């Protein structure tokens, strides 16, 4: 009975959809559901976020404010901090953070808080879908008992599923509606209603048999990236010892039209996904007495890259008979990847901290990050402002290190005015030689070959 009623409400768009967590995952999802014709109750604990949304302003780069304004005005989208409003909903998607604690163990506090918020107003006929990236077993171990303690039979009275988020902030091609959505229900009926719900606003829905399978799909996707990025990084370290240009090797390998996927070395990995997600799987497997050797090794290699880059800076200064201690170093690009403004887990923060621990005077320039906010958790004691990338600033630096290669930066000007540039992203490869000596991730001794890099 409940299943058919819910399916009908989804089909005729009379279902009211709840979204818990209105961040880079939840807000785009809430907008997609509302644009598909559902009334959406967006819940967030932040008064600021809710106030901005109710005023028609989006705080998420990929969600235009005009869309929020129109949906709020039409009554299809309401943002609230009142948990009781979730009692009005027929389906709820949970999109709250799943960070790591200092020991790199899962921090489930946000999911548990969302669970308790939902429990307070849960009723028969509801579908609950967890979207936050987490270890396999979370949906069945943390959410199902709550529903059963309320007297509900999962799969009959209420429905429960996991559906991994695949939001790639700033991606110009893929967004919530056109990125295939994996869904795994606790029972076939759960999978059926969750599939019906997401099919109402997402082009392709991929049902799998269990929530554990869906939880693992996400972890496989991002562990795959972490391991392959680590391979590219270790290739850079090996090429540096071999005196071979790692970028040349990777570019040439990428000409293989099959059986190879290009990843590039860099200063390490940042963001809220790749550095964290594999550790959710590693943690779960530790509870089953299994050591995830590849995840642990990839994490070890990736996390040593900031030190590898700092060593390059030290060698570059040494080449000018300068010590790091007292040197002025300009870090160019601090976001965790190009053309975005997010510095979470950015290796640039580690590089800045390491350089300053050796006595360097560090400044940074990032056109997307005007201020790095104080963050004691990441060793950022106080706010610091981006400096201008002027010829004067470049000439004042004893070394410039390119950590994030934002496309809009004038790298020709950098090599024309700086004395030495450590290029951790291959951003200077095609430039006209300027004043600066270029130090690459993998150092190639000067040889009589065409295009050798110094
Ligand atoms: N990185 C490298 N070399 C590479 C690729 C990435 O050093 O070849 C670094 C980046 O600079 C960054 C970190 O790794 O610091 C992560 O980069 P990413 O490209 O994986 O970007 P993310 O963290 O935004 O990952 C997201 C993920 N999306 C979701 O989890 C929903 C990931 O699954 C996507 O594949 C990725 O975006 C993407 O393709 O852009």
Write down the CATH class of the largest domain.
Alpha Beta
Low-confidence segments, ≥5 residues, pLDDT <50? none
Question: Could you name the CATH topology of the largest domain?
Answer: Rossmann fold
The biggest beta sheet reads:
8 strands, mixed
Number of helices: 15
**Structural class computed from helices and strand pairing:** alpha/beta
Which radius of gyration do the C-alpha atoms yield? 25 Å
CATH superfamily membership of the largest domain:
NAD(P)-binding Rossmann-like Domain
Explained architecture:
The chain is an alpha/beta fold and 454 residues long. It folds into 2 domains: 208 residues, 3-Layer(aba) Sandwich (Rossmann fold); 238 residues, NAD(P)-binding Rossmann-like Domain (Rossmann fold, 3-Layer(aba) Sandwich). Helix content is 38%, strand content 13%. The chain is built from 15 helices and 15 strands. The strands form 3 sheets. It has an 8-stranded mixed sheet with strand order 3-2-1-4-5-6-7-8, sandwiched between helices. The chain has a 5-stranded parallel sheet with strand order 10-9-13-14-15. Strand 7, helix 7 and strand 8 form a beta-alpha-beta unit. Helix 8 crosses helix 11. It is elongated, with a radius of gyration of 25 Å. 46% of the residues are buried. The mean pLDDT is 95. The structure holds ligand SAJ. The site of ligand SAJ has 19 residues, from helix 8.
How would you summarize this macromolecular structure in one to three sentences?
The protein has 15 helices and 15 strands. It has 454 residues and is of the alpha/beta class. It has two domains: 2-209, Rossmann fold, CATH 3.40.50.720; 217-454, NAD(P)-binding Rossmann-like Domain (Rossmann fold).
